[in-house]
UniProtKB/TrEMBL annotation:
The keyword Nucleotide-binding does not apply. This is Cytochrome P450 705A5-like isoform X1. Its cofactor is heme. It is a single-pass membrane protein. The lineage of its organism: Eukaryota, Viridiplantae, Streptophyta, Embryophyta, Tracheophyta.
Length: 381
């Protein structure tokens, strides 16, 4: 399944093919923000970011947005939120010893069954609609859902896929992709608001590369090195997944430590990315540290980063959605900085972290009032 996700959905070529789908969702993100700005309403950044990410993932998988008429998107978003809070409890249960783990699972059984049957209901409906579309139109396969449904019907397929496999894959993608990207967008926007020098420099970069009449697009990102550096620095200081888990199949040595077989190890990426041994001024938000320096070669920098910069985990179990994550975060931040002045209550955004959350979240979600920078709305072309 992971092979399939990488080749059909998250690999570089697949991402290139689905660029148009995301461009539409970015336009919609901009127009929603513009709408609230015109009404002078305050906006919770994470809510708007979540819609952007969630709709884009939905659209990429199913070749359409989750339908707004039936508020499928809202239901999926609600379920993702619920899964996060449930996941937190299960994570705690999983790192406790085995007997407690069993108690943990049974304590949350009702909640688990409830969420999973609701997910099942929404996804089953979408599956049925897609299958009907496929049967009626006899069209060439276009999206990942079609390909999976084809594989599901094919008795001779390389790997036998069932409807339950498809549904659980979608839940994995929604849950793994939505919260991570949404929280990153929120943390990074808060850092930018708190650092006027960074905001000014980023705006100058966007205005000079993209201009002031066309809306920023993901294809602009490679030409915006300072924006890329800001995103990386945000992920270093506020990694949405602060810990990753690894279970050792065999006994092995790590440095001078002997790790017994079947040990579950918690890797604290949050602490590694703030370790003063590897980072200068580790608590400071300094995007400049990620700008390619003239002193060291690109190769040295990449090797250095692999060892100490791990917001997407690492190795075979590392995040398969890293490239897409960079795209979501980069474009969302780009749109907000290019198009709006963001006003907050008070001088600075409160950067406290919420206690006990599975995903590293803000204790006080970022709320702003937006003021458009120009009177004429930006266009995509
Ligand atoms: C800023 C955004 C994101 C961050 C920081 C992030 C971070 C992570 C991390 C730390 C892991 C665990 C890796 C490990 O154990 O080594 C992970 C796993 C995963 N991520 Fe992401 N992620 C992001 C976006 C996405 C997106 C957009 C998708 C897809 C839509 C995605 C799909 C997945 C999947 C499927 C896994 C599980 C991989 C496995 O268990 O083999 N992620 N992510």
């Amino acid at each position: 399944m992971k092979k399939l996700i990488t080749s059909k959905l998250l690999g570089p070529q697949a991402l290139e093919r689905s660029q148009g789908v995301r461009a539409k969702e970015v336009e919609r993100f901009y127009s929603n923000l513009l709408d609230t700005a015109m009404k002078k309403e305050s906006v919770e950044i994470s809510e708007e970011a979540m819609k952007l990410v969630n709709n884009s993932i939905c659209h990429m998988i199913m070749g359409r947005s989750c339908s707004r008429e039936n508020s499928e998107a809202e239901r999926v978003r609600g379920l993702v939120k619920k899964t996060d809070s449930l996941g937190k409890k299960l994570f705690l249960a999983a790192i406790l010893r085995k007997p407690l783990k069993k108690i943990g699972i049974s304590l949350f059984k009702k909640e688990l069954t409830d969420v999973s049957s609701k997910f099942d209901e929404v996804l089953e409906k979408i599956l049925v609609e897609n299958k009907e579309k496929l049967d009626q139109e006899h069209q060439q396969d276009t999206d990942m859902m079609d390909k999976l449904l084809e594989a599901c019907r094919d008795e001779n397929a390389d790997y036998k896929i069932t409807r339950d496999h498809i549904k659980s894959l979608f839940v994995d993608l929604f849950v793994a992709g939505t919260d991570t990207s949404t929280h990153s967008i929120q943390w990074i926007m808060a850092e930018i608001i708190n650092n006027s020098y960074i905001l000014k420099r980023l705006r100058e970069e966007i205005d000079s590369v993209v201009g002031k009449t066309r809306l920023i697009q993901e294809t602009d990102l490679p030409n915006l090195p300072y924006l890329q550096a800001i995103v990386k620095e945000g992920l270093r200081l506020h990694p949405p997944v602060p810990f990753v888990l690894r279970t050792f199949e065999e006994r092995c040595m790590i440095g001078e430590f002997c790790i017994p077989e079947k040990t579950t190890l918690l890797v604290n990426g949050y602490a590694m990315m703030r370790d003063p041994e590897y980072w200068d001024d580790p608590q400071e938000f300094k995007p400049e540290r990620f700008l390619t320096s003239s002193r060291s070669s690109k190769k040295d920098e990449i090797r250095d980063e692999v060892l100490k910069f791990i917001p997407f985990g690492s190795g075979r179990r590392g995040c398969p959605g890293a490239n897409l994550g960079y795209v979501f975060v980069g474009t969302a931040i780009g749109v907000m900085v290019q198009c709006f002045d963001l006003k907050i209550k008070g001088d600075k955004v409160n950067m406290n972290e919420a206690a006990g959350a599975m995903t590293l979240s803000m204790a006080h979600p970022l709320k702003c009032t937006l003021v458009p920078r120009t009177l004429i709305p930006l266009t995509s072309i």
